[in-house]
Design brief:
single chain, alpha+beta, Pdz3 Domain, 2-enoyl-CoA Hydratase, Chain A, domain 1, six-stranded antiparallel β-sheet, six-stranded mixed β-sheet, 11 helices, elongated
Amino acid sequence: MRTILVRVFALLVVFASFSAQAGNKETIKLLDLFGDVFDKVKRDYVEDVSDKDLVENAINGMLSSLDPHSSYLNEKEFDEMRIQTKGEFGGLGIEVTMENGLVKVVSPIDDTPAFHAGIQAGDFISRIDGEAVMGITLSEAVDKMRGKPGTEIKLLVLREGENEPLDFVIKRDVIKIKSVRAHKEGDDIAYLRITSFSERTAANVKTELRKLKKEMGDKFKGVVLDLRNNPGGLLDQAIEVSDVFLDKGEIVSTRGRIEDSNKRFNADSGDMVDGLPMVVIINGGSASASEIVAGALQDHKRAIVIGTKTFGKGSVQTVIPLSVSSGAMRLTTSRYYTPSGRSIQAEGIEPDIIVEQSNIETIKSSVKGASEASLRKHLKNKDNNDDSSGDSDKEYNDIVSVYAKDYQLGRAIDLLRGIHYFGTSKK
């Protein structure tokens, strides 16, 4: 027998010995069954199969049968995962999971080949380069979608609302993720878009926020935090981003079977925007870490959450390095809960105000210029010696422009300004 085969049986003996001590005869029989199947496949299968492939596939089968997010990572996949969390990797630019045997798109990543090709959150990939996805693992599907930058890949996509499958031809590229984008909306609103939670996300949020606060000065009215199509990422970064806007209280808790999985994470004192109003925008592509942030800010009534219901991934995966193979296992070890004790697993975060993404059409009046000022011999306003309508006209035109490009963002900005004006009028 080859070295790996010997190791497999050695491990089976160890497990059998442990099970025997525990008095679990059924486990011994099952381990014997595994060894028997392994031996027969090696001896009788129509083609020669390497010990490495058989063992890795057996491990991956065991893990992937638990839930869609547990899996085995061989040495190459483990290295790629570590590169991805640093914010740069090769591929199409989509976060995926497995559902009903198909690859489901959690969300496309901004400014990536998949995003520009029109791949959408909720799409199901049924074929990759003509090969059916049904029957292969998620890791195998992801591996097929990766490749040399500049090469093309064909995807057959099933989309809700479409009668026929959709064909996509996408050119692979090196995916460089800028996880935080920021700009001013008008002269008074800070817009922060987080596309994923990688190693530098929280630091970048703080840097961009400081810049915008300095630019806007006393005009600063509030923050729009855009978490749409954010597939998640590192738990510690979600906690730190939440802490940027929270002055106290729990951010998230995790609960599992073992004691180390049961943890609570609390905010440190200090809110970078001093309690100014916030609106968080979410949608069906917001998952995992982005749901933690939205849930924490919503439960503490620190922000109004608008948009549509999130993806509903409320489990925590621990990546456990395996020294024997130089690979790792990604294992679901706990569920996370929002400060109020909600588990969003398979439920998602419901927005406070449902706002579907829409296209708007302005209905123009057939009577142009119909106002008191347009009437012949109208009385002049003696209290208004200058034209002070310029600022309000500019603000109106700006928001109309935003609505035309992004309806959900337009609603968020309107809501923030409304909260600000209402709060000012009470004083």
